[in-house]
Amino acid sequence: QVQLVESGGGLVQPGGSLRLSCAASGRIGSILVMGWYRQAPGNQRELVARFTSTGNTNYADSVKGRFTISRDNAKNTVYLQMNSLKPEDTAVYYCHAIITLVTYWGQGTQVTVSS
Questions:
Q1: Pick from 9, 36, 69, 92: most CB atoms within 10 A?
Q2: 101 has pLDDT over 90
Q3: Which pLDDT score is estimated for 109?
Q4: Within 10 Å of residue 35's Cβ, how many Cβ atoms?
């Protein structure tokens, strides 16, 4: 069994920064994909950023230049550094991973950008 545990969400003012972390634990096999999605009220869940199976990164157009995804393979952890946050970044952020061909989701962490 694999668990994804997120941390780092919270309330921040527009223009501020937050750093999210997601640690995978349990019977970790081959991590094919790992990254972040988000879902705002009334909206569908959307990709924010991820590492692909080839090690490349994908970003949503709306976060390019502001968000950076990174990882620590030794710790099976992925990070999302979010800078220049905007009110429209407000959402529940979910960690997502495909490990040994099985899809996993974290429980979600709330990010609220408001003055």
A1: 36
A2: no
A3: 97
A4: 23
| Cα separation values, 64 from 24, 51, 88, Å | 25, 14, 14
Placement of tokens 């920064």 in the chain: 17
pLDDT at position 68:
98
- Amino acid 94: pLDDT: 98
36 pLDDT higher than 90: yes
Dihedral angle at the C-alpha atoms of 107, 70, 59, 2, nearest 10 degrees?
Answer: -30
In three-state secondary structure terms, 66 is: coil
- Cα 103 to Cα 2: distance, rounded to the nearest angstrom: 10
DSSP per residue, 4-40: EEEE--EEE-TT--EEEEEEEEES---EEEEEEEEE-
